[in-house]
Amino acid sequence: MKADIHPEYREVIFQDVSADFTFLTRSTIETRHTIKWTDGKEYPLVKIEVSSQSHPFYTGKQKILDTAGRVEKFRQKYGM
C-alpha cells in the first residue's frame, strides 16, 4: 500500500439538529467545528439534519423537513 494517501480516521461527534441528539463515533469526515464531550475532551463536530432519532422510519412519526424552503417553492410552482 502507498504511504500517506489515506485520510485520518478519528473520533467525531455527530449532532442531529432537528432532534437535539448527539453521538460519538469514528469517521474520516473533515469539519471546522469542535465541541466538548462529556468526558471533557474536545472533538470535531458534524451537524446533520436526520438521524435515527428523527427519521420517520425509526420514530414512526411523519415529519416534513423544510430546509432552504424547498416545500414552499414546490407549492408555489405547482399551485398547491
UniProtKB/TrEMBL annotation:
Protein name as it appears in the record: Large ribosomal subunit protein bL31B
Family membership noted in the UniProt record: Belongs to the bacterial ribosomal protein bL31 family. Type B subfamily.
Taxon lineage: Bacteria, Pseudomonadati, Pseudomonadota, Betaproteobacteria, Nitrosomonadales
Any GO BP: translation
Statement: the UniProt record of this protein carries the keyword Ribonucleoprotein: yes
Keywords (A to Z) from UniProt: Ribonucleoprotein, Ribosomal protein
GO-annotated cellular components: ribonucleoprotein complex; ribosome
GO MF annotation: an example: structural constituent of ribosome
Listed InterPro entries: Ribosomal_bL28/bL31-like_sf, Ribosomal_bL31, Ribosomal_bL31_B, Ribosomal_bL31_sf
Keyword Ribonucleoprotein appears in the UniProt entry: yes
Subunit structure: Part of the 50S ribosomal subunit.
